[in-house]
Amino acid sequence: MKLDMQKMLLAMAVKCMTVGELAERSGISRVALTRFTTGKNNPKPATIGKIAKALGVPVESLVDM
Question: Under a CB-based contact definition with an 8 Å cutoff, are residues 56 and 10 in contact?
């Protein structure tokens, strides 16, 4: 399972959410989220779950299968 950065950024835009707000709501550091959005790191499935929950979207909408 791989996080699709474009899908995550789109979900953030729909919610008018910044990386800082997503970090606060998900409990994931801002540095880690920035690394995910730039493609330097790929999060574990549980981390993708936290991101999806914070964005209010299903996990399936954030990953490439």
Answer: no
Q: What is the rounded radius of gyration, in angstroms, for the C-alpha atoms of the chain?
A: 10
Helices and strands of the chain, counted as H and E runs: 4, 2
Give pTM, 2 decimals.
0.92
Q: Token pair 């998900």 is at which residue?
A: 26
User: Tens digit of pLDDT for each residue in 25-59?
Assistant: 999 999 999 998 888 888 999 999 999 999 999 99
Separation between Cα atoms, residue 48 and residue 41, nearest integer Å: 12
Q: Token digits for 31?
A: 């540095």
Q: Which residues contact 28 (CB under 8 A, 6 or more apart)?
A: 22, 43, 47, 50, 51
**Half-sphere CA count of 35, side-chain side, radius 13 A:** 11
